[in-house]
Amino acid sequence: MTSIPDAKAPAGEVVLEAIGLTKHFPVRRKLRDLFSNRKDAVHAVDDVSLTLRRGKVVALVGESGSGKSTIARLLAQLYPRTGGDIQLHGTTTKVKGGSAFRRYCSQVQMIFQDPFASLNPTHTIRYHLTRSLKIHDNAGKSAADLDQALNDLLERVQLTPPERYLDKFPHELSGGQRQRVAIARALGAQPEALLADEPVSMLDVSIRLGVLNLLRDLRDRLNLAILYITHDIASARYFADETMVMYAGRIVEGGDSETVTQSPAHPYTRLLIDSAPDPDRLSGDAAAAHQTDGEPPSLIHPPSGCRFHPRCPVAMDRCKTDLPVPLEIGDAPGHWAACWLYDRDEVTT
Ligand code: SF4
């Protein structure tokens, strides 16, 4: 197989699903704690469920330390999970190192934030792409097949003519070109899902849009399911079909991107939007928004009840004790928030 075919499978089909995904990192014990039974852990991800579908982008938005990248690494099987399930086409991958695991690793590819760190500076672009094609059995049978596959990969990420790039080293490319090479390397596996962890945050502002447009083109032409991790909620509106907002290890709001970004329901989502730079907003409004900023909580001892309650400007008594469940919001189908403000029983009693 030498070229990457445009996908024929129907858009919307579920590719990858996380169900109640949980990850706790044990904290190394201090000398004085050695004789106690205390076992602290960082509650990085708790009970997260999300679904990636063919031809759709899901954005996972939140501030640093909220657990977004941990979710990507769990889905890429780079970390073992503490709890929950990950299913590719409805099947759990159990055995690390088996053929099902290898198939999973081909079909679910990750794109990292820093394209320079993710490419080996001592090897050419040809080496990186050839390795990916060979590992995933997509290099074809002859040298001509391999050349064709390399050209196809570079053309697919709009690095043309391919011969201008194949024998360059990563340091000879711009940041945007390096990220395109990293995307081409992921495509060498012919994946069904891409996990893009802040793929444009280290690039110059002027070239971010080009890389996002490329990912959107791949979504449409290859019918890829894409998880887009970002702290920039404005780019989620532009790029993603669905947006999920994460705070302190939990998803707190979800829905289609237009609704979540234009009619945010959860107080944390509103805070994120108010905190985004907006030249049209007068300084008085911005200052008022930032009065509630506060600090993210410790994930070793996360707050009880709603984890956002110490920062929430509208917290109620029950927020300190009761963990909010996902509640439907208004008329927009699929829009929900984990916030007691939307508990109809609470409102009517
Ligand atoms: Fe604020 Fe309570 Fe809603 Fe949490 S559940 S966001 S504390 S109102």
> What distance separates the N and C termini?
64 Å
Strand content: 15-25%
Percent helix range: 25-40%
Q: What are the distinct ligands in this entry?
A: iron/sulfur cluster
**CATH homology superfamily of the domain at 14-25 and 43-259:** P-loop containing nucleotide triphosphate hydrolases
Q: Helix tally?
A: 12
Q: What spatial form do the alpha-carbon principal axes imply?
A: globular
The averaged pLDDT comes out at 88
Query: What is the element string, with H for helices and E for strands?
Result: EEEHEEHEHHHHEHEHEEHHHEEH
CATH architecture of the domain at 14-25 and 43-259: 3-Layer(aba) Sandwich
Q: How many extended strands?
A: 12
* CATH domain class name of the domain at 14-25 and 43-259: Alpha Beta
Major sheet strand order: 6-7-8-3-9-10-12-11
Largest sheet: 8 strands, mixed
What structural class do you assign from the helix and strand content? alpha/beta
> Radius of gyration from the CA trace?
22 Å
Q: Uncertain regions: pLDDT < 50 for 5+ in a row? A: 282-292
CATH fold category name of the domain at 14-25 and 43-259 = Rossmann fold
Structural write-up:
This protein has a domain at 14-25 and 43-259: 3-Layer(aba) Sandwich (Rossmann fold). The protein is of the alpha/beta class and 349 residues long. Strands 6-7-8-3-9-10-12-11 form an eight-stranded mixed β-sheet, sandwiched between helices. It has a four-stranded antiparallel β-sheet with strand order 2-1-4-5, covered by helices on one side. It is globular, with a radius of gyration of 22 Å. 32% of the residues lie in helices and 21% in strands.
